[in-house]
Design goal:
TIM Barrel; 16 helices; 10 strands; 14% strand
């Protein structure tokens, strides 16, 4: 599908969107959704899991409800470390080129059907080598699935926090970002247990990325506090994954504002990991009033049983957002993306014509 055809088709879909604009009963029927923080292995639907299990030869529960429970956290999730345990099954389903390609294809098709116009899908290539694949083969398989879906998406490659020395694997991931940059890959990320393995441990990775001219985002200000965000900014992060605990420090807020570094908030995920108790506790208005660039994302569609549209609706209801405020948040995502300026201009046109 060429760029003009894609833009025309999305515009036709976008024009079907509608707002019910009663201030206190604002229903958001979004046909121009954007998600910048979406993990591949955390966003495998029940249907897709069954496709992948057939490829990998893995037996899954017959009950869809039981399978969904295996793929998602419950209300009793204690913290980020417990949340991350839900990735064991999805990762086991993604250990061949065929399953990786099918997974990325399925996710992109699901996003397209739900009215999304763009997503940046992230994953860690080093987690998919159990059956002998190389990181490069993993990346190429995921990129094939994205390309064949017809959906507009880019891929972010995640280096991983680990208790073991995985510096060689992380540097290999960073090298693949450089190799595939602007060829389906748009950035590097650092993911994993932030509270156990702080950003400082990975200074070698960010140094290499900067030397190679590779843009990166870092999971920070989620399990750890504002100081983690400051360190991410110091290392040169272009965006901050989560970043919600920046609110704990005026110094950090000022740093984000002055440098205009966007944060990728994921509300339901933050409730799952007990950073906040309720959507109303998320300091959205404080971030906006302070001049912070906020983007709204899903994190993990299956693990948190959500998507970026649902996340926006939660914020509309808990923070009494207006249509113009929602439009502003969506445009933030477009502007904060790792797209070219021309591509951003095309997406801004879609948003302007649909909201």
């Amino acid at each position: 599908m060429n760029g003009n055809s894609f833009l025309f088709n999305v515009l036709m879909v976008a024009q079907e969107s509608a707002f019910c604009t009663g201030r206190n009963s604002f229903v958001f029927n979004q046909k121009c959704a954007v998600d910048l923080h979406l993990h591949l292995d955390g966003s495998i639907s029940v249907k897709s899991a069954r496709d992948l299990a057939e490829i990998e030869g893995i037996l899954l529960p017959e009950s869809d409800e039981e399978l969904e429970n295996l793929l998602s956290v419950g209300d009793d999730c204690r913290d980020l470390n417990e949340y991350l345990e839900k990735f064991a099954l999805p990762v086991s389903l993604l250990q061949s080129e065929k399953s990786l390609e099918k997974c990325s294809y399925n996710i992109c098709k699901e996003l397209l059907e739900e009215g999304f116009i763009y997503a940046e899908i992230r994953f860690a290539p080093q987690l998919h080598l159990q059956k002998g694949l190389t990181q490069k083969q993993v990346v190429e398989a995921v990129l094939r699935g994205v390309k064949n879906s017809g959906f507009k998406a880019n891929v972010i490659l995640c280096a991983m926090r680990s208790g073991e020395d995985n510096s060689s694997e992380n540097l290999e991931t960073a090298a693949l970002v450089k190799e595939f940059l602007n060829k389906g890959v748009c950035a590097l990320d650092l993911a994993g247990a932030e509270g156990l393995f702080p950003n400082e441990k990975y200074s070698y990775l960010f140094k290499k990325a900067k030397e190679d001219g590779v843009p990166f985002t870092i999971h920070s200000g989620e399990a750890s506090g504002a100081a983690s965000v400051e360190k991410a900014v110091e290392f040169g992060a272009r965006r901050i994954g989560h970043g919600v605990r920046s609110v704990e420090s005026e110094k950090t807020l000022k740093l984000l504002r002055d440098k205009q570094i966007p944060i990728e908030i994921c509300p339901t995920s933050n409730l799952n990991t007990n950073i906040f108790e309720d959507y109303s506790d998320i300091p959205l208005k404080k971030f906006i009033d302070y001049g912070i660039i906020v983007t709204v994302n899903s994190d993990n569609m299956s693990v948190s049983r959500t998507d970026a549209r649902k996340e926006m609706q939660h914020l509309i209801e808990s923070h009494n957002l207006s249509a113009s405020e929602v439009k502003h948040l969506i445009l933030n995502s477009v502007n904060a993306s790792f797209l070219s300026e021309k591509e951003k201009k095309d997406l801004r046109k879609i948003v302007e014509n649909s909201l």
